[in-house]
């Protein structure tokens, strides 16, 4: 893993990059898909359980991976719109890395968990519509994501999370950014969504609302709602288990990963074999 520092209008932020090295046996190098991962953490921190372990799983499936350390709530900043601007800056930066790391820029994936899922959903809704994007990010968007993957995402900050409205105001003083589903247009990209119906932190209605809006707009999606399991499962295996914490394990929910890989093949991000 290597760290990369990027800047948007004097605001510095970091990426953890997990590049796949070229294979010397190949006569021609393969251009590989890349995923930008946005961990959860309630906009207070970036969960390591949804960072490196996820990145390495994508690496093992033949994809480059980046963990975006997007803007959190602090004494000087709210999350929005700066986090959207950081994501756009990261996507534009990828163009400069295309030949260096053999990236297929037609196969860029945005992946968010919990609060990070809200960032990805908001980006899909707001930043892929040129008229709305220009109000947030003045530069052209040189690289457009192909698909999204959302794990137990916050979609609508008026539906169960956060509980305190004052925290929502700290995340985004402008309520325009609160409800990702309200701004989704036909420019949104296909999205894989998974959550548990027993999620005690982010109500499952968040995932349903986003899928419902995608359905109305005829945007391809796949929604998996598992019958049991806690919030923040990550891979739901021992790899991301907080030692001694049994609620991090769920053999049924862990199947989300294989379902997701299958969906990426359906979307032609990955080859069938």
TrEMBL record:
SUPFAM superfamilies: alpha/beta-Hydrolases (SSF53474). Signal peptide: none annotated. InterPro entries: AB_hydrolase_fold (IPR029058), BD-FAE-like_dom (IPR049492), GDXG_lipolytic_enzyme (IPR050300). One of its GO terms (molecular function) is hydrolase activity. It comes from the Bacteria. Keywords: Hydrolase. Residues 27-121 form the BD-FAE-like domain. PANTHER family: AB HYDROLASE SUPERFAMILY PROTEIN C4A8.06C, PEPTIDASE S9 PROLYL OLIGOPEPTIDASE CATALYTIC DOMAIN-CONTAINING PROTEIN. This is Lipase. It comes from Companilactobacillus nuruki.
């Amino acid at each position: 893993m290597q760290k990369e520092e990027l800047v948007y209008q004097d605001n510095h932020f970091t990426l953890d990059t997990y590049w796949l090295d070229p294979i010397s046996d190949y006569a021609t190098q393969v251009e590989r898909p890349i995923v930008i991962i946005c961990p959860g953490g309630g906009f207070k921190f970036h969960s390591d359980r949804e960072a490196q372990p996820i990145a390495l799983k994508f690496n093992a499936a033949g994809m480059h991976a980046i963990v975006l350390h997007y803007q959190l709530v602090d004494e000087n900043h709210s999350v929005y719109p700066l986090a959207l601007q950081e994501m756009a800056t990261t996507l534009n930066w990828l163009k400069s890395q295309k030949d260096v790391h053999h990236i297929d820029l037609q196969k860029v994936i945005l992946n968010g968990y919990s609060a990070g899922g809200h960032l990805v959903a908001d980006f899909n809704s707001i930043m892929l519509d040129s008229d709305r994007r220009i109000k947030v990010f003045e530069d052209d968007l040189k690289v457009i994501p192909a698909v999204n993957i959302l794990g137990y995402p916050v979609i609508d900050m008026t539906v169960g999370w956060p509980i305190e409205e004052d925290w929502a105001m700290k995340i985004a003083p402008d309520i325009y950014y609160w409800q990702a589903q309200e701004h989704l247009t036909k420019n949104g990209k296909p999205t894989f969504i998974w959550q548990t119906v027993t999620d005690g932190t982010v109500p499952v209605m968040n995932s349903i609302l986003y899928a419902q809006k995608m359905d109305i707009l005829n945007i391809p999606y796949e929604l998996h709602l598992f019958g049991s399991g806690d919030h923040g499962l990550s891979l739901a295996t021992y790899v991301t288990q907080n030692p001694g914490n049994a609620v991090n394990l769920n053999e049924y929910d862990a199947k989300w990963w294989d379902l997701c890989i299958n969906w990426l093949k359906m979307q032609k991000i990955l080859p069938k074999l």
